[in-house]
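User: I'm putting together a teaching handout on how sequence relates to shape, and I'd like one worked example. Could you take NADP-dependent 3-hydroxy acid dehydrogenase YdfG from Acaryochloris thomasi RCC1774, show the sequence you're using, and then write out its predicted structure as tokens right after it?

Assistant: Happy to. First the sequence, then the structure tokens directly below it.
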Amino acid sequence: MVSIQNQVVLVTGASSGIGMACAKAFAATGAKLILAARREDRLQTLATALKDEFGVESYVLVLDVCDRNQTQTQLNSLPEPWSNIDILVNNAGLSRGLNKLHEGSIQDWEEMIDTNVKGLLYVTRALVPGMVERQQGHIINIGSIAGHETYPNGNVYCATKAAVRAISEGLKQDLLGTPVRVSSVDPGLVETEFSDVRFRGDTDRAEKVYQNLTPLTPEDVADVVLFCATRPAHVNLSEVLLLPTDQSGATLVHRRS
Ligand code: NDP
Ligand code: 8X3
């Protein structure tokens, strides 16, 4: 494991789920965290917990990745010692609804595309030039099994994750010849607030997604993200698909009766 102590790691979507688990995993190694999301109270609580538990300072960045101007301005004016980002975890994302395409909500589509695709692109566009200039950096995109397989009623969410996969691939090609690495970590079912957000607070429906199977935890995903980040400089884990043992495909899950 290569040390990333004192490296600056920016995690988008650090206020919950996989992003929060990544922030904790990186903080445990002594990395310096920039915690980005919209809910400031949660980020502040996390920053305090990281200080208490690991003794690391974090920078709280209240950021809506859908806001192009805000994203550009905030990321281009980070104060010292936070301005040179070594590792970017592009994690912020969401799903909205589970509907047939011809019955879907256009507003839901726009929210998913704006966040999962355009937001990820805005953050990447703002930060990668500095990585190329400094000849140092690693972008870790959180994709999904949904980017490998489309499932019924998942249409637009799956399309956004297929786009993330294509963006990871394209960015890797464009950075060839530089030391900047691009990894895609693509989980299956992970129990987080993801389904609560998808079903807009319908907790019963959200819980059913993970019922009678053992889903991944956010920490399982964070382990893999950290593993990618701590390989020697000549090793790039290009794409990792990680599934619960109870899942073998987007719709193929084993539920105990
Ligand atoms: P959560 O709902 O628990 O976390 C989502 C995070 O994204 C929150 O921190 C939220 O913060 C942030 N976020 C959402 N919209 C924005 C925005 N506009 N600007 C900034 N931050 C935003 O879900 P997960 O942890 O599960 O999701 C994280 C990623 O993992 C997503 O990209 C998701 O698609 C992906 N994924 C999830 C899987 C799962 O089964 N859970 C499986 C495969 C991939 P806030 O609301 O405070 O802004
Ligand atoms: C989240 C996993 O299968 O719910 O990307 O779409 S799934």
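A couple of points you could highlight for students: The beta strands are 8-12, 32-37, 58-62, 87-90, 138-142, 181-187, 239-242. The mean pLDDT is 98.
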